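Give me structure tokens for this 188-residue protein.
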Amino acid sequence: MANKIKYGLKNVHYAVITEGENGSVTYDTPVKIPGAVSMSLSARGDRTEFYADDQLYYTESANDGYEGDLEFALIPDDFKKDVLGYKEDANGVLFEDSNVTPKNFAVLFEFSGDKNAVRHILYNVNASRPNLESSSTTNTKEPVTETISIVASPAPDTGMVKAKVEQGSAKYENWYQQVYTYVAPVEE
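Here you go.
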């Protein structure tokens, strides 16, 4: 049975993308990012409208994926190294390198719901660096979160933007073991 409502965000993972010379895409094993707070993504893509005969004659929308923010309690150093290209020296000091281009990655995550915890994948994501901010403590300690702006584009090899699966599917239990990719139906 499908959900009537959704809430919550949990089990956020990332899987770095490697593009082959022939345009093929492979995904690393997903790595969990603890402390997911929120995700807010808006659809990208313009709508083309054409008027004829004094009316809207034709309309088409482009699907350029999504853009928005992904907020965490704290962005892990492993994500900064794997995706954003930060470098760690022999003394354990982490450096942000301005000469590195961030890597694209898939994002796997889960929304809770009234019936199912639906699991999702965004296939081709690019992230910005998080802002650096904090504030002095007062009589209470308010956590300061970290947010990355992301753009989720169609996968370069398949054109797929996202996928989702509900409990009961054969792929549900192993969703976070590897990035599931599109399998075309067999024609009879």
